[in-house]
Design brief:
892 residues; 16-stranded mixed sheet; 19 helices; globular; six-stranded mixed sheet; alpha+beta
Length: 892
């Protein structure tokens, strides 16, 4: 027996524990997805809530069966025969985020079931000419009704889907069977588990009568008996023609058969059942990978000055005393109008100068969920109806949509909305990365339906980690508020003179009541301390009589948005509340954007922002830190772009040299365009240059270069020469060339002049030492930006097999030539650098620290001295074992 193995065997059980603990620390501590530590939360006499912070237990998604279709065993003999019968149903698309091919791509769908009963109501819009415009539903997606969209598996009967699963402890299977269209058959759904010995255990037998189509039936099944075992999960669908269907059923897909929702051209009754498995996921109760739930309220077209708590009396006074006062561009402060928003403001942090990157719903919603302007995603803000090619480009690189990023780490991403732009199966919308979107599209009763659904969902998912969006729509025109809420608006001079403006404010009070119901439920469930609450709007609303003119495509500006690009059109409320982190009713006066919200949420969750995000986390501002220069506010509308800088607001029109310029200090209501004044020519030129730079995501000429953040993770490049002085040279490049990035390089063990830095590129030349380690420490901001290197050893290309990564110095796979993605970050993450022998080892050793946010003592990012010493000892011992077995470095 080799001496090394003899020494190791008595400690085998200890080493196994070390390996297990190390891998668990890698996965749960951030290596698997390059997480940052969440900001520390001080718990103050709130013992009822025990789910906040890293390590708390909650149900998280561990497997998505739609994603697993590519490796599943699929028996769907009727798939080809079923296609002609499902083809007329147009509220569907191939699952855009699962990257399936072949028959699996035909089975993986995102599909909306119309759950409202009765004939689908066709929307008709009166025009100024006295005509009526009837938008085609298949294009505009505007028909009245309720639509429950889920990720699902299409399983026309008969079908058997078999999935190989490693079942985690305390696991459950959640899925929602449905039948797409009524048929005179009973559809049978069977779920069973086959263990490794071939024994089959039925979990669920569900029979759905033909008339019970078009609704998802939520199931929650216990997988705990198979925890820790490999099993085969089988989902079967079949029909029972012998069982009489006593309920009435109608012709299939009748309302969906034609673009206008009519009954003509209804397809024949299919000979099989068009069965669906909705939202099929495995969840497990385990230490959470993200520390907080997110409850995100969006109130369409809500202006911040609707809420008394979001008024700044000093700023209001300055506006009213300006040479050109804002008149009705500034709403009066009405205490008590929206008490629940006021309550949230009092316990959170509110940003008093926040703007949307879009002047209308699709652009504003994309910006808030992606951290990028709509145009950066390739989705033009000029077109209502999107051409196929930019939509295909949008899906191809998997854009950094926050719901999608959070569902990748186990959170349940669900939305209850009135927002028809969030459906990807119509040309006016795109899928934004939610697993489920329930859309209640009504003029007045949508708010209650949305709130009721959200409350019922929370009750069933209060033990989960979730990202829940509640998007109401009442302040969006047309205005039709309840009379009791309209009575809250005082008559002039305390209230607005215009009846439409009073109705707008009353509509906001309607949505405020729904927000209060949901916040009360969260508190009653004991989830307040573990839930980040965000309240914002997709855009503002143009209410000023000074803006009662006609814009692009002859659309009116007043009581609308999209066309105008005024400050009142794009300024939004932004409130964030999280006990111990974002609290105390603090106000932040710096200008911010809704593209900054997604990076903020990711930082709070201990995740790094995608480097494509042009927004920046708001946490430094919330902590009172001062930034070297203001954030540039850019807004995109239909045919316009705007930039706010200093006291100026410039609006440029596509295809025109006619700019608008407003002096927000002298003219806060933007009633007087001063672009043509000779004295302002330089101002217009400067703001145009700043806008060009901002759209390209580069700094303006006078921008102060901010150093890489002190909290950015350090990438350590350590070189060992196996006892010889080797020449090591090369270049290191940060960023993708499209987004701004800062690179800082600090030499270790060599003179500082070995590195020459030119923006995001560094070139270097150094020599290894026979008995010492040398290297370079890199800081990159934003932290998730890719880093690539090209290396030479003694002026020859870097040898294969001489790059090692991570805490044990294992051969690098994903990080051989840089760190460009989650796989590479996971490979190099290490709490400390590996043990390297400069006299024996030859190569580069790459590790990456965890960013230091605001962790508490004893947290993974700031361990106690005892824990750090124990971890280092365990790592050293494990590395020795791996090295002796030939898995780690030391073979050169």
């Amino acid at each position: 027996m080799p001496p090394a193995l003899a020494r190791w065997l008595p400690r085998a059980s200890v080493t196994v524990l070390v390996v297990t603990a190390s891998l668990l620390a890698w996965k749960e501590g951030g290596g698997a997805d390059a997480r940052m530590p969440a900001p520390h939360v001080d718990v103050v006499e709130q013992p009822e809530d025990t789910t906040a912070g890293h390590g708390a237990s909650a149900y998280e998604v561990t497997a998505r069966l739609v994603d697993a279709l590519g490796t599943a065993h699929l028996q769907v003999p009727s798939l080809a025969a079923a296609q002609p019968f499902v083809a007329p149903y147009w509220r569907k698309m191939h699952a855009p985020w699962s990257h399936l091919s072949g028959s699996a791509a035909q089975l993986g769908l995102t599909l909306a079931v119309r759950t409202s009963r009765g004939q689908e109501k066709q929307l008709a819009v009166p025009t100024k000419a006295g005509d009526t415009w009837v938008p085609q539903a298949r294009i505009w997606n505007m028909n009245e009704g309720s639509f429950d969209q889920r990720e699902c598996i299409f399983a026309p009967t008969p079908a058997t889907l078999s999935f190989a699963l490693d079942v985690p402890p305390r696991a459950r299977l959640r899925l929602s069977p449905a039948v797409l269209t009524p048929v005179p058959l009973t559809t049978v759904f069977d779920v069973s588990v086959v263990d490794s010995g071939g024994g089959e255990q039925p979990l669920k037998h569900l029979r759905v009568a033909g008339a019970d189509a078009r609704k998802w039936i939520d199931l929650d099944l216990d997988l705990a008996p198979w925890g820790g075992h490999k099993v085969t999960l089988e989902l079967r669908t079949s029909t029972d023609a012998s069982a009489p269907d006593e309920k009435r059923w109608t012709l299939p897909l009748a309302e969906e058969a034609s673009p206008d929702g009519g009954l003509e051209n209804a397809p024949p009754v299919p000979p099989m059942s068009l069965a669906l498995w909705g939202d099929p996921v495995v969840v497990a109760e385990q230490p959470t990978r993200v520390p907080y739930n997110v409850l995100w309220f969006v109130v369409d077209a809500l202006r911040p000055d609707v809420a008394a708590s979001l008024h700044d009396p000093a700023e209001d006074a300055a506006k009213l005393s300006a040479p050109r006062p804002p008149l009705d561009a500034l709403l009066p402060s009405i205490p008590g109008l929206v008490p629940n928003i006021d309550r949230l403001v009092a316990r959170g942090v509110h940003f008093t100068h926040a703007w949307s990157a879009g002047t209308w719903t699709r652009a504003g919603t994309l910006a808030m969920f992606s951290g990028e302007r709509s145009s950066e995603l390739g989705i033009d803000t000029r077109d209502w109806v999107l051409p196929p090619e930019p939509v295909a480009r949008y899906y191809r690189p998997e854009p950094p949509m926050l719901p999608l990023l959070l569902w990748r780490v186990g959170a349940d991403a669900t939305a209850f909305v009135n927002n028809f732009f969030m459906a990807g199966y119509v040309p006016v919308g795109v899928d934004m990365g939610f697993e489920r979107v329930t859309d209640h599209r009504y003029r007045t009763r949508d708010t209650d339906a949305i709130a009721n659904d959200a409350l019922a969902w929370l009750d069933g998912h209060k033990g989960d980690r979730f990202f829940l969006v509640v998007n109401t729509n009442s302040p969006h025109e047309p205005y039709d508020p309840p009379k009791d809420l309209l009575a809250r608006i005082p008559r002039p001079p305390a209230g607005p003179r215009d009846a439409q403006v009073r109705a707008y404010m009353a509509e906001a009070a309607k949505d405020d009541a729904a927000i209060g119901r949901i916040l009360d439920a969260v508190e009653a469930m004991g989830l307040t301390r573990s839930t980040l609450v965000v309240l914002t709007a997709d855009h503002g609303e143009t209410l000023s009589a000074a803006h009662d003119n006609i814009g692009f495509e002859d659309m009116p500006m007043r009581f609308h948005h999209a066309i105008g690009n005024f400050e009142e059109t794009t300024r939004i409320p932004l409130v964030m509340a999280l006990p111990g982190v974002l609290d105390g009713g603090r106000a932040v006066a710096d200008r911010v954007r809704n593209i900054d919200i997604a990076p903020t949420v990711l930082e709070l969750e201990g995740l790094e922002a995608d480097p494509r995000m042009s927004g920046k986390s708001l946490l430094p501002l919330a902590r009172g830190e001062k930034e070297p220069q203001p954030r540039v506010v850019v807004t995109e509308g239909r045919g316009t772009r705007g930039i706010l800088w200093d006291r100026w607001h410039l609006v440029v029109h596509e295809g025109s040299t006619e700019d608008e310029l407003y002096d927000l200090q002298d003219d806060p209501g933007e009633r007087h365009d001063v672009a043509k004044r000779p004295a302002n020519r330089d101002v217009v030129a400067e703001l145009r240059a700043r806008l060009t730079a901002a759209l390209a995501n580069v700094n303006a000429a006078d921008a102060k270069d901010a150093p890489a953040s002190a909290t950015a993770p350090v990438v350590h490049l350590v070189f060992a020469g196996a006892g010889r002085a080797h020449r090591v040279s090369g270049t290191i490049t940060a960023g993708d060339g499209k987004h701004g990035v800062t690179l800082a390089v600090a030499p270790l063990g060599v003179p500082g002049d070995v590195v020459r830095l030119d923006g995001p590129t560094a070139s270097f030349s150094l020599s290894t030492a026979p008995d010492a380690l040398v290297g370079l420490d890199l800081r990159v901001d934003p932290p998730g930006a890719p880093v690539a290197w090209k290396l030479y050893l003694d002026d020859s290309p870097w040898p294969d097999g001489a790059t090692y990564a991570g805490p044990f110095g294992l051969p690098a796979v994903a990080s051989r030539t840089g760190i460009a993605g989650d796989d590479a970050r996971a490979e190099v993450y290490a709490a400390s650098t590996p043990t390297v022998d400069p006299a024996r080892d030859l190569g580069i050793f790459v590790t990456r620290d965890r960013p230091q946010s605001s962790p508490g003592a004893g947290s993974p990012a700031n361990p106690t001295p005892e824990a750090a010493a124990a971890a280092k000892a365990a790592q050293t011992e494990m590395q020795q074992v791996l090295r002796q077995w030939g898995y780690a470095h030391g073979s050169h």
